[in-house]
Write a structure and sequence with these properties.
single chain; alpha/beta; Rossmann fold; 7 strands; 38% helix; elongated; binds S-adenosylmethionine
């Protein structure tokens, strides 16, 4: 596999544009990884009546919903850079959830208190912060009460762009996929682990998960996702390598897609989850 696509264009605005398509195509796949992340986090630090959850880069609200379903009375704060994503969570009408629009790399401490949360969930969000990734990890550390735990996941291998790249390469032998990914984005769990240790986390644990994009069942689904999805990093809008009119690629793309045995299984995202604990206060 493949090429990692982490777009420089990943701004809150970009995510708002792509939020509908994200919810339709990507969120069901990422849910698998989020379930594993939450499972591992709760195993490491079982919630109690005193717990407080922070869901950071909450997106369309998958993790917030899972947390709410598993623990109906524990307060949750859901933070995202994108007002469009936060609006989607608002529409879920979940009780006891505080919604915040903000940057995880520079938390507004009037909304996200320090030394407060028992569990921080951050699924597939940190890589969009480029050279501010260490700041995001430090902010999580600061947000946690002593003894609290954070679970942060990375996408470490993505082949979502593969059909598009194959089609372009057939039309133009000189075509070289040159993603607009942020080359500072951490692409290996060891990088995240090092960032977490640097921030002060201990008891580090790692988990791997494969998330097939099973929502893309037909060629038309892929075309809809790819041409109209508008997600930062996962759409034609961000694929700078094809210099011509993207519509000219469409017939070849449909041919390439027809060559996959099972699109819904073959296209997806591999994810690594890293968990860590803020040291307990020594007595
Ligand atoms: C790939 S989506 C993941 C959403 C959700 N956690 C999931 O796994 O389905 C990345 C999310 O992170 C948010 N995000 C990106 N950079 C952020 C930042 N610096 N602070 C807060 N949220 C951010 C985006 O707006 C987007 O909703």
């Amino acid at each position: 596999m493949a090429d990692l696509i982490i777009s420089k264009a990943a701004t809150g605005e970009g995510w708002s544009d792509g939020s509908a398509s994200y919810e339709k195509y990507l969120a069901p796949a990422t849910k698998l990884g989020i379930e594993r992340l939450i499972e591992a986090l709760f195993k490491m630090h079982p919630p109690t009546a005193e717990s407080k959850f922070l869901d950071c880069g909450a997106g369309t609200g998958i993790s917030t919903s899972i947390l709410r379903e598993r623990h109906p009375f524990i307060p949750i704060t859901a933070l995202d850079l994108s007002p469009g994503m936060i609006e989607r969570i608002r529409q879920l009408g979940l009780s006891g959830v505080k919604l915040c629009v903000g940057d995880a790399a520079a938390m507004d401490r009037t909304q996200i208190p320090r030394d407060f949360f028992t569990h921080v969930v951050a699924a597939l969000m940190i890589q969009f912060s480029g050279d501010k990734q260490p700041d995001v990890v430090r902010e999580f550390y600061d947000s946690l009460a002593p003894g609290g735990v954070a679970g942060i996941s990375l996408s470490t291998d993505i082949n979502i762009a593969e059909p598009w790249n194959r089609a372009c390469a057939r039309l133009d032998p000189a075509y070289e996929p040159s993603y607009v990914h942020d080359d500072k984005a951490w692409t290996a769990p060891e990088q995240l682990e090092a960032g977490m240790r640097e921030a002060g986390f201990e008891d580090i644990q790692k988990v791997k998960v494969w998330m097939p994009m099973f929502t893309v069942k037909t060629k038309e689904d892929y075309v809809d996702f790819w041409y109209r999805g508008n997600h930062p990093g996962f759409s034609i809008r961000d694929m700078g390598a094809w210099k011509g009119n993207p519509d000219d690629v469409l017939p070849e793309l449909l041919k390439v897609l027809g060559e996959y045995k099972d699109l819904s299984n073959d296209i997806g995202v591999a994810s690594d989850i890293v968990l860590g604990r803020k040291p307990r206060l020594s007595s």
